[in-house]
Design goal:
By secondary structure, the protein is an alpha+beta fold. The protein folds into 2 domains: about 30 residues; about 100 residues, no CATH class. Strands 2-1-4-5-6-7-3 form a 7-stranded antiparallel sheet. It is elongated.
């Protein structure tokens, strides 16, 4: 009888862990970012020019989201936010995605008081260079790459 109870407890724990893993994988792929069908505008602001917002063309939105995902909760970054994306939803609410300068993969970003790690600095740089006119022709090392 005792063996049966241990066996049932072991299977129950295993199933719970498997379910938690599946839920975690689903949540990290979707991540903290809103569904693109709910977005009406995405703008980019560089820390050197905080008053200027550069609109990101809707054709680049999937690439932008791919550069930040999959994402999971992360520790508070050791430095201040540098650049940001301002996301306007169709219901006129605004979400600000703060980007953090780290010399390592994956990207670090914050939304509200939550911090996330995920995606790729290289992909994020490609999106920024392709979509933000002042940075398309520059040859300097992007802020999100190792020096």
């Amino acid at each position: 009888m005792l063996r049966k109870k241990k066996w049932i407890i072991g299977i129950s724990i295993g199933l719970c862990l498997a379910l938690a893993l599946l839920v975690s994988l689903f949540q990290t792929r979707k991540g903290p970012l809103p569904d693109l069908t709910a977005v009406s505008r995405i703008s980019y602001s560089r820390f050197l020019d905080p008053g200027t917002l550069h609109d990101i063309a809707p054709t680049y939105w999937p690439s932008l989201w791919d550069s930040l995902l999959p994402a999971s909760y992360g520790p508070v970054p050791p430095n201040k936010s540098s650049d940001k994306f301002v996301v306007t939803l169709k219901d006129n609410s605004i979400i600000t995605i703060h980007l953090y300068f780290l010399y390592e993969e994956p990207c670090a970003f914050g939304i509200g008081s939550c911090y996330f790690r995920g995606g790729s600095h290289r992909k994020l740089n490609e999106v920024i260079r392709a979509t933000v006119p002042p940075y398309q022709e520059q040859t300097w090392v992007p802020v999100y790459s190792k020096p």
